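Shift notes (night). Ran Stress responsive A/B Barrel Domain while the centrifuge was going.
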Amino acid sequence: MVKHVILWTLKDELSPEEKAQVKKGIKEGLEGLKCRVPGIVDIKVNINGLASSNADLMLDSLFENKEALDAYAVHPAHVAVADEKVRPYTKIRSCLDFEI
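Came back to this:
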C-alpha cells in the first residue's frame, strides 16, 4: 500500500469566504474520485484545520500500490479536478508519498 499525503496553502488574495468555497470544492472533487479511479483504497480531504496550522487543507489518500498512485496522477478525472479546483487557487503544495 502507498500513502499519498498533500498539504496545500491557498493563495493570499482569496477572501475567507472564497477560501471556504475553494476548500469545499477541492474536498468534493477529490473525494469523488474514489469510485472513479482504480486503485484508490481511501481518499479524504481535511478542510477544518486548527488556527495553529500553517496549511489550509490536506489530502490523505491510500493506494493499492505505487502503480495505482502513478495511474491516479494521470487519470483524466483526477487531472480535471486538479486543473479546475486545485491549481488555480493554491500557492504552495507539499507532498509525501510512502509505502506502508
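The radius of gyration is 13 Å. Residues 5 and 87 are 16 Å apart (CA to CA).
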